[in-house]
Amino acid sequence: MKNGEARLLLGFPPNSRPTPSQVKAAYKRKVWDFHPDRFPADKRSYAESRFKMISEAYSCLLPGNCLPSFLVLAASS
């Protein structure tokens, strides 16, 4: 996941530089909104996929955790 995409998922502008505390607060807010247990059974799969994407975005925006996109592409080929 690219940093700009991760920022958008957590509600930040793509070129912003949120602090770790801002990232954590946005993550908690988004996780609460898309927690699978809060959705009816027919919409649970959508909530699970969003929940996973938000969790990935959070881990990507933590300092030192996200690989540059060229390393991800090189590892996948």
From TrEMBL:
InterPro entries: DnaJ_domain, J_dom_sf. One of its GO terms (molecular function) is unfolded protein binding. Transmembrane segments: none annotated. GO terms for cellular component: cytoplasm; nucleus. Residues 5-66 form the J domain. Gene3D superfamilies: DnaJ domain (1.10.287.110). This is J domain-containing protein. It comes from Chenopodium quinoa. The lineage of its organism: Eukaryota, Viridiplantae, Streptophyta, Embryophyta, Tracheophyta.
